Amino acid sequence: MTRNRAVTRGRRLVECSIAFTIALPALAGCDPCFGVSSCGGAVISYGGAVYDTYPDAPAVGREIMMVWKSGVELAEDSVRFVTGSDGHFTLRVPALSMGEVIADFVVNPSVPDSSHLVRDQVLKTTRGNNVLPLEPWVSIPPITYVGELYYRGNLARVADATVEFRRTRGIAVRPDTFTVLSNFEGRFWLIPTPLQGGTVYGEMYVTLEGVAQSFLVPEFPLETFQGGQVRILRRGIGPNWDYVGELRWADRNEPAVGVQVDFVPTGGLELIPGSRSTTTNGDGQFRVPGRLLDPLLEGIVEGDLIFHRSEGSPVTVTGLEFPTYEGDPQLPAGEWTIERP
């Protein structure tokens, strides 16, 4: 992009030299040699304010950097400016055409430990001496989270979902209600602007295309924090099917460690085809293997558990039923004792 602009500007200088030679009488009019804004051309022109605490403590002498991301081209890709004695600032950058610009703003860019990012601001071009307003910003650590949704029943990511965030309590944020769309990885930004440092609590309503039911993600916290890192908020929706069993040796009631456990479905909801085998851990515990084929269906999975000892015949427990349920915690499948090999 820099090379193309250099070529463009070089071409303008040549054109301006020619125009100066053959069109001296036109000097009193609009001259392209003095930039696109010299004749009332397109310009990004905004006024805003930064506060340490809104609205009582304006941030005086605070450096801000605007960084162009997309949209119509500007005369400069990045611009730095400083807030005045009342925390206000004015931004004015010539644009190469009328339209919209997407830009990020970095407050305190020269001090990384105390800087924060105002993402994806939509700026419209104007003409003349117009100054458009920006909403006030608060110079405090931001809220920067990526949400990640998965189906509880099989851990698949929830893609193309409409997610509505609603503030329930805690610090004030702007906006306090907003809607985003999850991508193919089930991810989306959670970046409301805080009006003070601390924690905001909210809940989410998830809507899937073609599904009448919406899913509630219950209240969770989002904290302001320094630095450029992004935190992950991972939440599940839909019915859960996650059971933990325990196996012990009958003679001394000790954990049966390292025993292979198979689950054989016999009826009810279908599971994803594949291996349904696991091994008990150091406490003799195991997760009943398998994931739901349809993560939105509620019902019961029927089946048998088979415990394979190192010697002798396996032990089979038949006629088991494991229903789906709401919520995230694992549920106990049961406790069994078997004879040592």
| Main sheet properties | 5 strands, mixed
Distance between the termini: 73 Å
Q: Count of helical segments?
A: 1
Structural class: mainly beta
Structural features, described:
There is one protein chain. The protein has 341 residues and is mainly β. The protein has four domains: 1-34; 37-138, Immunoglobulin-like, CATH 2.60.40; 145-237, Immunoglobulin-like (Sandwich), CATH 2.60.40.1120; 243-338, Sandwich (Immunoglobulin-like). It contains one helix and 26 strands. It has one helix at 2-22; strands spanning 43-53, 57-58, 63-71, 78-82, 88-94, 100-107, 116-124, 132-133, 137-138, 145-151, 162-170, 173-174, 177-181, 187-190, 193-194, 199-207, 214-223, 231-237, 243-249, 254-255, 260-268, 277-279, 285-287, 300-308, 315-323, 331-338. Strands 1, 2, 5, 8 and 9 form a five-stranded mixed sheet that branches. A four-stranded antiparallel sheet has the order 4-3-6-7, with no helix packed on it. The protein starts with a helix and ends with a strand.
Record the SSE blueprint.
Elements: H1 2-22, E1 43-53, E2 57-58, E3 63-71, E4 78-82, E5 88-94, E6 100-107, E7 116-124, E8 132-133, E9 137-138, E10 145-151, E11 162-170, E12 173-174, E13 177-181, E14 187-190, E15 193-194, E16 199-207, E17 214-223, E18 231-237, E19 243-249, E20 254-255, E21 260-268, E22 277-279, E23 285-287, E24 300-308, E25 315-323, E26 331-338
Parallel strand pairs: 1-8, 1-9, 10-18, 19-26
Antiparallel strand pairs: 1-2, 1-5, 3-4, 3-6, 6-7, 10-14, 11-13, 11-16, 12-15, 16-17, 19-20, 19-23, 21-22, 21-24, 24-25
